[in-house]
């Protein structure tokens, strides 16, 4: 089972995105050590969970056809710096490169969740290249280890709602489906951000502001 909170921003993107050119999406994966960033990346690229992953920082690419449109994902699987300082956890280069962020924590590791909280702030305050609501999806991984949970899904849902992020709780080890949902949600948000960038906020901007006040949809 996958728990999902959809950020409001992505809800109408398919209808609004008229062009059919190839779309490129730079996705930056961030999170503490050992939370499953590489596992998530490899699952998305190959559909497999192989158990152990080297600790190499890499950018991978995968092309897909989604809704009849060619999408090229560039995925930067980052390494969390050993000597980490909340203020410098995301470099300027990363902020500029990324169109959207996947912030991963482990549901069994409270410190990794606290880091995600700080990273959300860091991105929201930083100069990411997409102005306005920079697309972020928060991922609580290792749902198969529920018996060792130290972060509740309610707490993470609250963080996602209050910071306008998507949220999924998944087990990369158990299913490919949850991983796919994460990337597709982020893609929706990136498309939405680009549409917003092109035109005035208009009705959509107003609807989003109202939603921020009145709350968002949650789907189980
Ligand atoms: N039980 C369980 N283990 C997982 C899951 N996802 C990843 N792991 C394990 O967690 C460990 C760390 O996974 P990685 O993908 O290397 O984590 P990472 O965040 O890339 O770690 P760094 O390279 O240190 O930054 C590995 O032993 C994985 O097999 C999951 O959903 N459930």
From TrEMBL:
EC class name: hydrolase
Q: Which GO terms describe its molecular function?
A: G protein activity; GTP binding
The UniProt entry, under Gene3D superfamilies, shows: P-loop containing nucleotide triphosphate hydrolases (3.40.50.300)
State the superkingdom.
Eukaryota
Return the EC number.
3.6.5.2
| A Pfam family matched in the record | Ras
User: Would you identify the family this protein belongs to, as annotated?
Assistant: Belongs to the small GTPase superfamily. Ras family.
Q: What protein name is recorded for this chain? A: small monomeric GTPase
């Amino acid at each position: 089972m996958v728990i999902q909170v959809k950020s409001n921003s992505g809800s109408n993107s398919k209808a609004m995105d008229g062009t059919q050119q190839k779309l490129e999406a730079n996705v930056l994966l961030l999170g503490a050590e050992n939370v499953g960033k590489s596992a998530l990346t490899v699952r998305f690229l190959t559909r497999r969970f192989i158990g152990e992953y080297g600790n190499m920082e890499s950018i991978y690419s995968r092309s897909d056809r989604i809704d009849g449109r060619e999408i090229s994902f560039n995925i930067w699987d980052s390494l969390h710096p050993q000597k980490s300082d909340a203020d410098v956890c995301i470099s300027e280069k990363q902020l500029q490169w990324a169109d959207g962020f996947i912030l991963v924590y482990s549901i069994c590791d409270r410190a990794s969740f606290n880091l995600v909280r700080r990273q959300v702030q860091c991105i929201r305050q930083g100069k990411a290249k997409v102005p306005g609501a920079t697309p972020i999806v928060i991922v609580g991984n290792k749902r198969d280890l529920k018996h060792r949970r130290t972060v509740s899904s309610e707490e993470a849902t609250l963080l996602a709602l209050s910071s306008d992020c998507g949220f999924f709780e998944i087990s990369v080890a158990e299913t490919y489906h949850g991983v796919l949902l994460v990337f597709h949600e982020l893609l929706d948000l990136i498309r939405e951000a680009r549409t917003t960038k092109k035109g005035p906020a208009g009705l959509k901007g107003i609807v989003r502001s109202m939603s921020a006040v009145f709350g968002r949809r949650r789907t189980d």
